[in-house]
């Protein structure tokens, strides 16, 4: 019984594969899709030079607007430049691929609202 301890794994079993399959079995299908879409949103959806430049311009308007407490600058940064980057990717880079279209709007609203709430608190708007 040498080597037969509490944490002994049979040599022919792949420990990482078992854990991954068990973890997948525990995650509900809707949550799995949510996690996959969220990963897509934070990575692939925000790629591209023009998109990154537009987001940087957006963040500069947004952060400056937050610091001087200008609603107009915050809205310009948040909606105009930010969404122009997404629109550029959708229409020109990805040729209207449905993965980059309307299905990302709920994620934009969710993550945008959460980030905005944190930023408003950090900049003492409430």
DSSP summary: helix tally: 5
Integer average pLDDT:
82
Q: How many DSSP E strands?
A: 0
Morphology: flat
Q: For the report, how would you describe the main beta sheet?
A: none
Question: Which residues form runs of ≥5 with pLDDT under 50?
Answer: 5-18
Fraction of residues in β-strands: under 5%
Please provide a written account of the structure.
- The protein is mostly helical and 126 residues long.
- The protein has a domain at 41-122.
- The chain is 69% helix and 0% strand.
- The protein is built from 5 helices and no strands.
- α3 packs antiparallel against α4 (71-93).
- The chain is flat, with a radius of gyration of 22 Å.
- It starts with 14 loop residues before the first helix and ends with a helix.
What's the gist of this structure?
It is built from five helices and no strands. The chain has helices spanning 15-26, 29-42, 49-68, 71-93, 105-122. Mean pLDDT is 82; it is low at 5-18.
Give me some keywords for this one.
5 helices; 69% helix; mainly alpha; single chain; 126 residues
Q: How are the SSEs placed, and which strands pair?
A:
Blueprint: H1 15-26, H2 29-42, H3 49-68, H4 71-93, H5 105-122
Helix pairs in contact: 3-4
């Amino acid at each position: 019984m040498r080597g037969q301890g509490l944490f002994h794994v049979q040599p022919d079993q792949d420990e990482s594969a078992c854990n991954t399959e068990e973890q997948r079995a525990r995650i509900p299908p809707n949550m799995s899709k949510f996690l996959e879409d969220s990963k897509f949103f934070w990575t692939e959806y925000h790629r591209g030079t023009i998109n990154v430049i537009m987001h940087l311009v957006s963040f500069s308007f947004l952060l400056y607007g937050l610091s001087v407490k200008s609603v107009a600058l915050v809205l310009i940064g948040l909606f105009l430049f930010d969404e122009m980057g997404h629109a550029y990717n959708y229409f020109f880079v990805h040729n209207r691929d449905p993965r980059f279209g309307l299905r990302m709007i709920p994620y934009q609203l969710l993550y945008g609202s959460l980030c905005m709430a944190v930023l408003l608190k950090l900049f003492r708007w409430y």
